[in-house]
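User: Need the bound-state model for adenosine-5'-triphosphate:
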Amino acid sequence: MSFIKINSLTSGYSNTVIIRNIDIEVNEGEVLCLLGRNGVGKTTLLKTIMGLLPTLDGECFVMDRKVSGLKPYQIANLRVSYAPQDMGIFPDLSVGKNLKVGYRGSTSNFEEGCEEAFVHFPILKERLTQRAGTLSGGEKKMLILSRCIVNQPRLLILDEITEGVQPSIIDKFSDALNDIKKKGTTILLVEQNVSFAEKVADFYAVMNQGEIVAMDQMGRGSKQKIESYLVI
Ligand SMILES: Nc1ncnc2c1ncn2[C@@H]1O[C@H](COP(=O)(O)OP(=O)(O)OP(=O)(O)O)[C@@H](O)[C@H]1O
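Assistant: Bound-state model below.
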């Protein structure tokens, strides 16, 4: 069964179409990485899947349930966790409160979810009472990923989690994602970092000008193929 299925999805802002005829299928426990140059519509696609932008045409299913037309909170209630590119952390709240605010309850145990996140990002446990706004850029990214992990999602959607992050922390992210994947979570991520994508993804899709122009299994030779689409 496809865990996420997207058929001929078209979306954009007001009357401007940004992405068109997007077809994607990801099975349970698989990881698909979307790559593409700046401004090709990757974030627009993720926001449309999450119900933050209206679907102009086509449809999206998660676990056979049509999610196009649902509100973002209804989609999140299906145990879909989304880490937006602009992070959306609350700078004046502590790290602990940021984790609590993002916790959706009922589907998992908060303390258990936190411990799962702290295995990968122990520094956050030491910083529980620190204001999130005072964290470093890399720590903020750890916090946004941890806020997703706490909910023990069935589908995890990440928008450029490695952006502006130093290599040693990026390695922690790939370890965390591979661990989450082993537990059966399906992952859809947008990335600019092809080496990171190689480490975590089973499949890749390259977008250009609002369309998917290549899609294949990730493997030997994928990096060169992907990079050939990314040259300006
Ligand atoms: N709120 C908005 N209103 C109008 N146009 C927008 C809005 N947000 C983004 N766009 C436009 O939509 C296009 C796609 O943007 P999007 O953020 O989806 O691209 P992206 O591939 O995620 O880029 P990046 O890698 O730089 O984040 C761009 O031309 C952008 O200017």
